[in-house]
Amino acid sequence: ETQGTLISGGGGTEESGFGAVRYGGQLATNVYYRIYGKYSDHDESTHTDGRGASDSWSMAQGGFRIDWEASEIDRLTLQGDYYDGWMGANLNVHSLNPPGLFARSFRSKTEGGNVLGRWTHEFPAGSELRVQASYDRTDRDYGIARELRDTVDINAQHRFHLGERQEIVWGAGYRYSLDDINETADFQMSDPSVGLQLASAFVQDAVTLAPDRLHLTLGTKVEHNDFTGFEVQPSARIAWTPQE
Length: 244
Prior knowledge:
Shape: extended
Helix content: under 10%
Mean pLDDT: 92
Low-confidence stretches: none
Oligomer: single chain
Number of strands: 12
């Protein structure tokens, strides 16, 4: 749906400059791709007395996506992004000389990337299975500390019809996120490297009470995290369409 070339750009007094280039093409029969790159640069804010706030920032980002219609019932997607930028800020840091704190302007670096793969399979009678996995890495330099974080996420969901009036969707997922924080004299943590796990499962039943008029949706989500243990989130909704 996004074949061909798209180029956009501009600039102004606050958003100093921005631009983007995107191109979509076809690699083979039923294999399509898209690549892009964009950049933006933003001027700093201004205090009421005319001083600059030292909060200017800029960001560059690029990525790709490939979609393969492997067969009439199987579709595969692979996509990824990478970004690199910086953000200005003011920060109070410690000093051994009086008064003990002093303001310092700095540039906070932000960098990261991700890759995601998804497989969709259609079964007879309108049933569909979707499996997705992704990996994400972020690198943040806050001036007084630096955080590296790696996150892996896997999830799957299955949709099928039960009779003529019910559509059921259920699925499960797992996420693991590991951070590594470099400490400084101004920023200390009891454990600078922690791995967090999040597991979840859900089920939803959409019931047609009156065709094109009244629908009932029942479901619940159950998850387990490392902070509060098990959590349950049930829900019930009714949708009424009085007229077309």
